[in-house]
Every structure is written in structure tokens, then in C-alpha cells.
Amino acid sequence: MISFILNDLIIQTDEKSGTPLLDFIRYRKHLRGTRIGCREGDCGACTVLEGRLEGTTMVYRSVVSCLMPLGNAQGKHIVSIEGLNTEILSPVQQAIVDHDGTQCGFCTPGFVVSLTGHATDQQPSSPHRVIASVSGNICRCTGYKSIERAAISISNVLKDKDPADPIGWLVQHGFLPDYFTGIPEKMHTLQKKALRARMARTLLAATQEEQFLLGGGTDLMVQKPEVVAVSVPHMLFDRADLKQISADQGDCIVGASVTVTDLHASPLMQKLFKRLDDYVYLIASEPIRNMGTLGGNICNASPIADLAIFFLALNSKVYLQDQFSGNFRSMFLKDFFNGYKQTALKPGEILHHLSFSMPGDDILFHFEKVSKRNTLDIASVNTAIGLKMQGNTISEANLAIGGVAPIPLFLKKTSEFLTGKSVSAQLPAQAAHIMDTEIAPISDIRGSEKYKRLLANRLIHAHFVKLFPKQ
Ligand SMILES: Cc1cc2nc3c(=O)[nH]c(=O)nc-3n(C[C@H](O)[C@H](O)[C@H](O)COP(=O)(O)OP(=O)(O)OC[C@H]3O[C@@H](n4cnc5c(N)ncnc54)[C@H](O)[C@@H]3O)c2cc1C
Ligand code: FES
Ligand code: FES
User: Over 50: is that where the pLDDT of 207 sits?
Assistant: First the structure.
């Protein structure tokens, strides 16, 4: 039994946990404002809000319902466009009208939901952040400038939002219907029902085959939608033990179900990586960042997985847990990938967390990515570098690159070459020369082999330009 709140109603359903939330909303609840565009997380027409109770406050994030398995709605408040409508237009809807931000209207519910999600954000609004909030929404007819103008006008209004009670302020100012103020109480009722359902589920678990592991679903629901839709996956997304980001005796621990947005919001990660903002905005779009997990990114073993590349350059270790015995084993992330889409995971194991030595002032780190589009696109080539410095000398180097081999590639020879070298104007070219012997790009839709070699070369230079601007 899956229990959640859809708009202002408590839902309890026996639907399969792999059912796309989109289908449940449209075909079971007949709420047709949530549109079907691509079913691949690319267009944002199906965007809804996912709310969770944190302490006494509701926190909302936008998600694409086509890739969200129903099981991940468990214990949450899901808001479709119908759940935002009142007798009059909300300030978000009015801004879209005022700035001519809609024509055929097909994409408009998705934009309204994303912008309302931005309004609920606890961080202060800014032009950059409000535009980023619609990075997952595509419009085929209006043209983005009018939508951007609408977004910026909303951002201006949000400057007055009360940071102590954002939801109360948004209800008062018509952004959200009145029923939102009663949601925390409903969530408590739901939690009691969910607890009973969980107990029933535990009794069932011995007889019920959970067919495969599922995090946010943003990879698997694109690759195998028909299989997931009729399945009972082993849901990892909301497991509390997989959600930690913490410091432990000089190491940073990141749980497998931490999302890209969780990483971005983490004060610890922000402290460790000064350019975290720039790196995060290179990954996917806001709803995909809200859903996609570290575990899914690493375990799908895609050669261009951004987080895999990021954490390879920190010489991270992964911790694998056997689900039956609870036992752990660990290995370096660079030894985890066995071949194209193959990992060292054994049957019954999950990636539980990874850890890396927390970079101090002596560590320089940088991530670069080039893709065909600025947002909502996977990399043609991505790369990250971690350098431990003693004065001008590199005492340890960890360099990783994606899109140029069957796996997210740790550049062993290039890293060894850089270790012990003094930084000079010639060093990037020498390192890029070694790197060229380690990679094996193929021509595909993201570029020819020649283009990717050239790109990889320029990105190695880019690391040094960013880290040593005076060389
Ligand atoms: C529109 C769009 C844009 C995207 N853009 C990017 C991008 O810019 N950069 C990028 O790197 N990726 C991108 N992706 C890919 C994807 O979003 C990420 O790889 C994401 O991190 C996958 O995480 P998930 O939790 O959604 O994975 P899921 O789909 O839940 O799982 C992926 C695989 O990992 C396994 N798995 C999940 N968690 C665990 C675990 N803890 N232990 C063992 N196995 C596990 C699952 O069984 C499955 O095989 C994009 C996807 C979409 C749809
Ligand atoms: S239908 Fe396109 S993102 Fe869901
Ligand atoms: S208004 Fe037609 S797709 Fe956006």
C-alpha cells in the first residue's frame, strides 16, 4: 500500500510502486493538467511538486512525474497543477499572462508548477535562480524571452517573502491555495497510516520478490520504462541511512541516495568546493537534479556520469552493502567500473555510500563539462582534477574523464605523470599528451572521435587555466 497526499486528498493505493506517477495522476485520478510530452524527463510538461515534512515545515521540490515511480511518492505531498488553482489566477499564472508567456498552452502547467516550486524555495530568489528553476521546461511555440520576463517579475515579488514562514506568506499572497497551511497536520495523519502500511509491507516482504534497485528513477525509467512500470522495485530513494552528508575524522561521507540538489544544498559541500554552484548547474535540469541520486549516477556506470567523474578525482572509496547480511566491503571508486555499464556490485549488494578525504587548503579541485546544450544535457566530454600541492609542486594528482572510454575513466598514467611535477606553462600540454594515449573515444551523436580528443585536450588545459591563472 502506498500512501501520500495528492493536492488536498490523502491517497492510499495498491498500484505497483514502479508505476509512473504521471500515469497515476492522469489515468487513475483523471487530473489531465499534468501533460505527457516526452516521457524521458526532457520537456517538463509533466512537472509536479514533491513536498516533504522537515521538522514542522513543508519543503517542496519540482520533479518530472513521468520518471517518478509511485513508490517514491510514499509519505509525501504531491502537487499537480490542479492543486495550485484557485478561483483567481495566482501571481505566477498572472505574470505569464501579463508577459505573453503562453500560446498553445501545452507547456504552461509545467512552467507554472516549476515557478511555484521556486517560490516555495527557502533560499532567496534571484534572476539566475528563477531562470534555473525552469531549466527543465521546454516550450515549442512562445519563445523563452517572454517566459523569462515573467519569471523575473515573479522573482522581484518574492523579494518580500517572509523567510521565517515562506508557505504562510505564499498562501497569504495567493501563490498557494489555503489548504497548504493544513498540509503539515495531514502529513502527520499520513505518517501514522504509512507506518501501518510499512508494517504490513514488512510482513509481505518475505514472499514478495523485489525485482531490482531503484533510486530516483531518472535513468532506469528512461532505459526500461515498461519493465519498471509493472514491477515492485527495491526502493532506495528515501532510505534515511542512504541520505547522509557528513564529516567523520577528516573524511566526507556521502550516502547513495543523496540527490544532486542535496549535494548543492549541503553547507559542508559548499564549504569544501568553492565553485560548487557552477558545477551543479552543468548537470541536467532542476527536476532531474531533485531526483537523480549519487547511487544511480555511479551504478548506472554510464561513461559520462557527472558525479562519477567528480568523485573519481577525489580518489573516493565506495562502500557496498550486502542487503541480506548487512555486511560491508569497500574499494576505490576507480576499481568499481568493470566495463561498459558493468560494475563490481554482486547480486544482493547496493552502493551504500562513498567517502573521500576532505580537501584542505593544499588541495585544488576543478570540474569541467562540455555538452551540446548548456542545460538539460549529458556531456560530450566531462573531466575533473584533484591536485594536492606542496608549494608549486604537485604531490598527488587524481584526474578523471568521461565520454572518451567505455567507463568513467580514471586517468592513471596522466595522474602518475603529474605527481611530483612542478607547475609550469608546459605542464598542461605534456599531461594532455599522456592523456591522449589513455583514452579511446568513439564517434557518436555527441561528436566524432577527433572532436572528443580535441575537446579532452582543451579541457585538460582548462583545468590548469582555472587552477593556476598566473602560469
Ligand atoms: C533529462 C535527463 C538529463 C540528464 N542529465 C544528466 C547529466 O547532465 N549528467 C549526468 O551525469 N546524468 C544525467 N542524467 C542521468 C541520470 O539523471 C543520473 O545518472 C542520475 O544520477 C541517476 O540517478 P537515479 O537515482 O535517478 O538512478 P535510477 O534510475 O534510480 O538508477 C540507475 C541505476 O542505478 C541502480 N542503482 C540506483 N541506486 C543504487 C544503489 N544505491 N546501489 C546500487 N545500484 C543502484 C539502479 O538499479 C539502476 O540500474 C540525466 C537524465 C535525464 C532523464
Ligand atoms: S513528459 Fe516530458 S519530462 Fe515528463
Ligand atoms: S505555449 Fe505552446 S508549447 Fe509552450
Answer: no
- State the distance from the centre of ligand 3 to the C-alpha of 48, rounded, in angstroms: 17
Under CATH, domain 91-176 is a member of which superfamily? [2Fe-2S]-binding domain (1.10.150.120)
- What is the Cα–Cα distance from 258 to 275, expressed in whole angstroms? 19
Q: Please provide the average confidence, as pLDDT, over all residues in the chain.
A: 94
Average pLDDT over residues 193-219: 67
Q: Which three cell numbers stand for residue 174?
A: 495567493
Specify the residue with its C-alpha closest to ligand 3, atom 2. Answer: 104
Q: Which ligand is nearest to the CA of 109?
A: 3
41 in ligand 2 pocket by Cβ < 6 Å? Answer: yes
What is the model's pLDDT at position 197? 58
Contact present, 3 and 75 (Cβ < 8 Å): yes
User: Is the CB of residue 150 below 6 angstroms from any atom belonging to ligand 1?
Assistant: no
CA distance 120 to 79: 12
User: Which CATH number among 3.30.465.10, 3.30.1780.10, 3.10.20.90, 3.20.10.10 corresponds to the domain 240-467?
Assistant: 3.30.465.10
pTM over cut 0.85: yes
C-alpha to C-alpha distance for 343 and 118, rounded to whole angstroms: 37
